[in-house]
Design a protein that fits this description.
alpha/beta; 2 domains; 297 residues; single chain; 8 helices; 10 strands
Length: 297
């Protein structure tokens, strides 16, 4: 069985070093593939000294990195692709516990598309950015595994996401044009909507080593994060159109154009105009945003 651990990195060498060290200590062996998204620090030089496979490309954001990495891992024959950001530090048994559940699922009629770990912040609490979208009901075929404390999810994040080869073959690759934010939600939702199960495995634990334990908030964001919210708003509106239809999409377009500016004025303490403009630009961009799904090639 071939497991490829995929890390997408950009200018965070110290975290990358910690992540790779953690991968090298896994209780099951993994091949390590790093997509270097145009880092301008010492990342490339350091990676050249490491026993890992490296793909260097211009900065295409996390979305472009995962597109490239998942495609490459699939073409190299990976049975499982373990995707994560460069600030993801897996515990030594993280992938073993994911695969243990995957093997149990194979004894049922359930077809697994992906499994996801419990992501904690440095204080041990759940990371607010990585709480999966849990389903209210699960496949009856998974009931015999209820003692394992697993739960079925609709979507999850690219923070210790173990993707089955079948999922890539069936559903294709992440949308590289997303650049950043909501690419993982779209991709994992695409997989579960195709009839493949998404499984949350709480015994598989990783550390998501961000500076703060937060979930993206338009009303609290720093000015430097405004561009991320452009992509987030545009991409989420794309997902709404795709999964919930035109009526829901256009209703939310109107909300973003007319209601959200009022909320920004009321809730933000500063830089209100900057975020109103970003919101408007992202909303208008979403109307014409229609990227295609690409298959491995």
């Amino acid at each position: 069985m071939k497991i490829v651990a995929l890390i997408v990195t950009h200018n965070r060498l110290q975290l990358l070093q910690e992540a790779i060290a953690a991968l090298q200590k896994q209780t099951l062996p993994v091949e390590i593939l790093v997509v270097n998204n145009g880092s301008t620090d010492q990342t490339a030089q350091w990676l050249s000294t490491q026993p890992v496979q490296v793909i260097t490309q211009q900065n295409e954001g996390a979305s472009g990195g995962f597109f490239t990495g998942i495609n490459q891992a699939y073409l190299q024959g990976a049975d499982w692709i373990w995707a994560m950001d460069d600030d993801t530090i897996p515990s030594p048994t993280a992938v073993e516990k994911l695969l243990r559940v995957a093997e149990k699922c194979q004894q049922t009629s359930a077809q697994v598309g992906f499994l996801v770990s419990q992501a904690n912040w440095i204080d041990g609490n759940s990371h607010l950015m990585n709480i999966p979208d849990f389903k209210t009901t699960s496949l009856s075929s998974l009931l015999p595994l209820s003692a394992m404390n697993i739960r079925e999810v609709q979507s999850a994040s690219f923070v210790s996401l173990l993707i089955a080869r079948q999922a890539v073959a069936t559903c294709g690759l992440p949308i590289r044009e997303f650049f950043i934010w909501a690419d993982d939600t779209e991709y994992t939702t695409r997989i579960t909507r195709a009839g493949l199960a998404g499984i949350y495995v709480p015994e598989s634990v990783v550390l998501h080593k961000t500076a703060f334990n937060y979930s993206a908030d338009l009303y609290e964001a720093k000015p430097s994060e405004a561009i991320k919210h452009f992509y987030g708003i545009r991409n989420k509106l794309y997902c709404r159109r795709k999964w919930k239809g035109e009526f829901s999409f256009w209703r939310n377009i109107l909300k973003h154009l007319f209601i959200f500016p009022i909320r920004i004025i009321r809730k933000r303490r500063d830089h209100r105009w900057k975020f109103i403009v970003i919101n408007w630009k992202a909303t208008l961009a979403a109307i014409f945003f229609n990227p295609s799904i690409q298959m491995p090639a």
